[in-house]
């Protein structure tokens, strides 16, 4: 019996090796990433990267980086990851959040960062497809610069074309459960793209994707819900007094998004003054602004009151100092229907968008670009985490109708919020998920990670889940990597969080 068992195990191992071999043999020639500068060791799973041409006539090409699951890539879900901006590369997620590596800033100037395996990479339980979108962002580009004038709807359409063509290149993953995920302005990208995917499935557009659901973290959703969220958040967090909260609520009639009186404007200005020196991406963290010292940054009065601080603050981490600029404020100035990208919004006020030293130094290195198959033609000058190369129109309106359409048809949705993010506060997200009108089937309760309360959760019918992450800022997998992997892996597996 022991001999038979040993033979059976050996046979199973051979079958697994064969399946793994077949899985990677269908990949496009030259797409395999064999090594990455800064990392010494073996990859825990196979990596692929390259381009998909979505418009031959204009030469529009979208760049992707694909990390196979470290578990069972033949069966594990495939998850598309999108960062926001608009105008920010999804290498943001790869480098700073849930990619396969942790990056350590080099000790000497001009040297490459050191890479270590990330114990909380989302590739532990799924294959992750990082996409630079739209064209003009990151390493994605077009030969026709008119393609850099785009918006929500065109971006969703282009990303859908990308997915169809990508799965033609990697048909071995068509049967895997497929999910779309993203954060910040990807709160717009994700549901609009999901809607395009579902329309394609309904129309029997080949290949047929095995789409199961989507994930949005601290995502922009609806002008009014997001715009009204800051005052209630600031009050709940003890950032403004009860007296000021009562005054601003009375004078604004609860409408903080679009003030209609001078008294309301004046009270909102007082709110802004109280929060002006906080790090908007995580109110628990200090502000860092362009020097080696920690210092505060005053608000910019040219921006709407509740968004004057967006993008101006940063937080230091043990291995890096970084300036954020990754969530577009839905109250930002709009001219001729065009919304500003982060560099356009912030540079116009004398404030740089990002100073992402680790990602910038690594991805501007010629040997790194060669290793990941990034074309020189894709970058005008140096690579930037967030670019002002595109002109972007917010033309999809509120996302609530998209969420209701998708969830009512049975597609699963996980909406999560770092509860100390003041950029897209959880108060707005909690309010809009409640506004959909679904029956509560899992009443507000704590969820546990590593034996501790990690946040709170409310489940609705039609598989809509709202979840908070305690103590986290805007980019949850970055601030709380262990907890993020916990809820992500449970949700993908259909388990109770």
Automatic annotation (TrEMBL):
Its EC number is 3.4.16.-. Its main location: secreted. InterPro entries: AB_hydrolase_fold (IPR029058), Peptidase_S10 (IPR001563), Ser_caboxypep_his_AS (IPR033124), Ser_caboxypep_ser_AS (IPR018202). It is found in: Secreted. It is an enzyme of class 3 (hydrolase). One of its GO terms (biological process) is proteolysis. Residues 1-24 form the signal peptide. PANTHER family: SERINE CARBOXYPEPTIDASE-LIKE 20 (PTHR11802:SF254), SERINE PROTEASE FAMILY S10 SERINE CARBOXYPEPTIDASE (PTHR11802). This is Carboxypeptidase. It comes from Actinidia chinensis var. chinensis. The lineage of its organism: Eukaryota, Viridiplantae, Streptophyta, Embryophyta, Tracheophyta.
């Amino acid at each position: 019996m022991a001999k038979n068992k040993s033979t059976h195990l050996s046979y199973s191992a051979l079958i697994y090796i064969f399946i793994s071999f077949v899985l990677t043999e269908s990949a496009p020639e030259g797409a395999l990433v064999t090594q990455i500068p800064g990392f010494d060791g073996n990859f825990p799973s196979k990596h692929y990267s390259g381009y998909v041409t979505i418009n031959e006539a204009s030469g529009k090409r979208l760049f992707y980086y694909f990390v196979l699951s470290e578990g069972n890539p033949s069966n594990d879900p495939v998850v598309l990851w999108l960062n926001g901006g608009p105008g920010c590369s999804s290498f943001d997620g790869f480098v700073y959040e849930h990619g396969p590596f942790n990056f350590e800033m080099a000790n000497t100037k001009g040297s490459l960062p050191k890479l270590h395996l990330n114990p909380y990479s989302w590739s532990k339980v799924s294959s992750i497809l990082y996409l630079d979108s739209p064209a003009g962002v990151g390493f994605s580009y077009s030969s026709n610069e008119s393609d850099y004038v785009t918006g929500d709807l065109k971006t969703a359409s282009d990303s859908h074309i990308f997915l169809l063509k990508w799965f033609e290149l990697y048909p071995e993953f068509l049967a895997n459960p497929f999910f779309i995920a993203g954060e910040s302005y990807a709160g717009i990208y994700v549901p609009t793209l999901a809607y395009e995917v579902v329309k394609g499935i309904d129309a029997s557009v080949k290949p047929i994707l095995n789409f199961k659901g989507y994930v949005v973290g601290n995502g922009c959703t609806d002008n009014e819900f997001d715009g009204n969220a800051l005052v209630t958040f600031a009050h709940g967090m003890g950032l403004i007094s009860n007296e000021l909260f009562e005054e601003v609520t009375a004078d604004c009639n609860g409408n903080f998004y679009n003030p209609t009186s001078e008294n309301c404007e004046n009270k909102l200005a007082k709110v802004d003054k109280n929060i002006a020196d906080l790090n908007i991406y995580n109110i628990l963290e200090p502000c860092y602004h362009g020097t080696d010292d920690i210092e505060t940054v005053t608000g910019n009065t040219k921006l709407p009151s509740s968004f004057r601080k967006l993008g101006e603050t940063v937080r230091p981490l043990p291995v890096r100092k970084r300036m954020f600029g990754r969530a577009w404020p839905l109250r930002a100035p709009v001219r001729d229907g065009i919304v500003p990208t982060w560099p356009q919004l912030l540079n116009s006020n004398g404030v740089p968008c990002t100073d992402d030293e680790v990602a910038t130094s690594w991805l501007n290195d010629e040997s790194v670009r060669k290793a990941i198959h990034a074309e020189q033609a894709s970058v005008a000058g140096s690579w930037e985490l967030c670019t002002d190369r595109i002109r972007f129109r917010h033309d999809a309106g509120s996302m609530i109708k998209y969420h209701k359409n998708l969830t009512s048809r049975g597609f699963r949705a996980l909406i999560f919020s770092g509860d100390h993010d003041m950029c897209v506060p959880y108060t707005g997200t909690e309010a809009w998920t409640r506004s959909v009108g679904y029956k509560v089937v899992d009443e507000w309760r704590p969820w546990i990670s590593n034996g501790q309360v990690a946040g709170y959760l409310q489940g609705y019918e039609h598989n809509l889940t709202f979840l908070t992450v305690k103590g986290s800022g805007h980019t949850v997998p970055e601030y709380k990597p262990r907890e993020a992997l916990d809820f992500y892996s449970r949700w993908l597996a259909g388990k109770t969080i």
